[in-house]
Design brief:
The structure is a single chain. Helices cover 87% and strands 0% of the residues. It is mainly alpha-helical and 676 residues long. The chain is extended. Residues 137-253, 309-382, 483-563 form a coiled coil.
Amino acid sequence: MSDQIQFIVEKLNQEPFRKNYNLITFDSLESVQLLQLLNDVLGEIDPKHAVDIREELPEQTAKRMFSLLGILKYKPPGNISDLSAFRQGLVTGSKPVIHPVLHWLLQRTNELKKRAYLARFLVKLEVPAEFLQDDTVADINKQYEELMEAFKNLHKECEQLKTSGLSTAEIRRDISAMEEEKDQLVKRVERLKKRVETVQNHQRMLEIARQLRLEKEREESLAQQKQEQKNQLFHAEQRLQRAQLQLKEMHDAVVDSKPESLMKKLEEEINFNSYLVTEKIPRELECKKNSAYFLQKVVAEPAMSQSDLNVLEIKINEVNAEMNQLIEKRMMKYEPIDSKFSMYRQQASIISRKKEAKAEELQAAKEEMSSTERQMLQKTNQAHELEGSEVLKGDEFKHYVNKLRSKNTFYKKKRLEIAEITAEYGILQRTEELLKQRHEAIQQQLQSIEDKKGISGYSYTQEELERVSAVKSEMDEMKGRTLDNMSEMVKKLNAMVAEKKASLAPVIKELRQLRQKCQELTQECDEKKIQYDSCAAGLESNRSTLEQEVKGLLEECAQEESNYHYINCMKRNLEIQLQRAKEEMKAYVSPDPQERRKAIREQYTRMILEQENLGKKLREKQKAVRESHGPNMKQIKMWQDFEQLMECKRECFLKQQNQTAIGQVIQEGGKDRLVL
């Protein structure tokens, strides 16, 4: 708390507050002064709150502060569990309430300024659903939401520009570089102009070049517009396909939907949620609390060996046996009375277990369905991004598969027919070749016979005459059939027209009645649709209020559970400490020396005595070492001197030995010379 107050005082002494407080003067502030100080900090964050609290009522001040703290998303600390106590402390200017608020505000002033600025434009006004039925109000609300989205986008762009890292120095350098490039281009253009002025008709050529450049730019812009329009058309077709798919899904979902079915579905959801809130979740919470309590109890116990575990297992078995004996005795004693209700109890327990199992299955199925829907939505988006075509599902996919199967069957059938026709075609082709060969042989024989008889070309002329006569007869016959067919067709058409007129007369009369009935049904359908929309809007608002209530209850339950666990842990720690203190007192005042030895005080006393004795021995040893330190050092010095003396003697001995060996070698050499 002292660090918190010191931080607050340091921040208040800086810009823009400059209060010149110290810890004593800040702690001596009254409640009104604290509230005014809090209001000044809030006024620095949002200038609308820079007012004097003495000029307004306390209720107005509290309401204004509560609204701003809510916008800034301030949450009271954990030790203020009751929200009403926090509100009361804020109204009265209580220090335990004001100090944490000031500490939180002064920690993140710049961030809160930005949040308060955005809140003026992004806090949405909630319009009741019944007012939105008016077209004017709905249009204004839509424009309001569009302007809010536009503000969000502009604010994001502004933040991106602020954090993009562009500085004025870089911009100036870019401008100077662009000016230098401009000067170079101007000089180059002047040189080119001077070079072109010597050419004949240079003005006309420049004009033609300018027009060519303009046309090329226009061609590029037209190509770009064409590409943009193609892209827009493609995206529009994709949006149209998605919209048609969504419309079809909505139509399929609303085919059998009625207010009664929606009410029934909502009632089922409410019953299921109420069962979860009132029965299932509290029971699971109680089980979790019990398991946590037992786990805390196990953690608080000292470490156990295998023998202790065996003893506990034996005790558990004995207690279970006693429980079974007591249950049997109770059943034997109360069996005549409870025999009537035992069957109903068993049925009730079975039904409750089934209900719990079904509730868990339903919850798991809902979670699985939601995850599957998310996966399906992701896959649909991926398919739209990759292909851009409609994704079939449900009955459409089955119909598509059946259609493919029928096409496959038809394809196989046609393929067999093509194979048969191909085989037959091969046979006929071979037959044709054989017949042609025979025909050519016969023609050659006939030609040779005609040459021998002197009537060459007779057979060819006869064939031509026969062919022409056959063609003429066919044409005459075709003309006659055509005239007959046309006369018969005219008669049939006249008869069919008369027959259709006669048959369509009552149908047209009935169609007029059906059209009138269709208009009436359409009008009735529009009225029912308006009623359905209003009913659906009311139900949606009721559902949202119920969801908010359930959410609030769940948050309250979670907060209460956390408080309970915290208090339970603190209680358990205090109980363990108290138990240890009692055991210590019991062991300390016990007349039994063995028990007294187990006391922590006795153990620490023994340890202190042992350490004192050890320290006494070490001090005596240190004293003896100090006393013998001088003589020992002298002795070490004498031994070092003795070692140096012996090393010197060894070196002298080695030198003398070397000199003796050299002298002997010289003497032997002299003797050898004398002998020679």
